[in-house]
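From the shared-data thread, chain only:
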Amino acid sequence: MHTIQRTTHSRTDPFAARFGQSLPRGMREEATGLSWEGFLAEFAPTGAIRLGTWSTRRDREDLVTCQATIAHADDIMSLQATAAGPIGAMTSMLHDIGAPVQIVGLHQRECAGTVTTFLLCEHDDRRCWAYGTGQTADEANVRALIAGANRLRPTR
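Structure, as tokens:
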């Protein structure tokens, strides 16, 4: 388990300090005073669920079929899901591995040449914010979903 370091003299939004754009309300209040490293450790944690490969292809009737290699603890799985988009496909895959996530809120922006996604995730009446980045919106969304699944994963 990691310890979050809060700076005692800084009560700022770490995302705004780094990129000049504020975090979404709610997430900003939770992140106030965190260093950039502390922000990443809290909202984009590396955990038991890790994404290996990811690919998307167009399917019938505006659907996409996504394939992924996901590690969950010591198990490595190849998964496939067809949905209205990559978020739906990854949500389905996470459910299949026993790490369900419901998206309650989504905020997205472009900064520093990458797409940034902030998700408010929920499972079993527990909510958390998650953060992901990517070259595309879909890549940022999938990374934020993985972060949300890791944050919502029960600690044992």
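The chain is about 30% helix and 35% strand.
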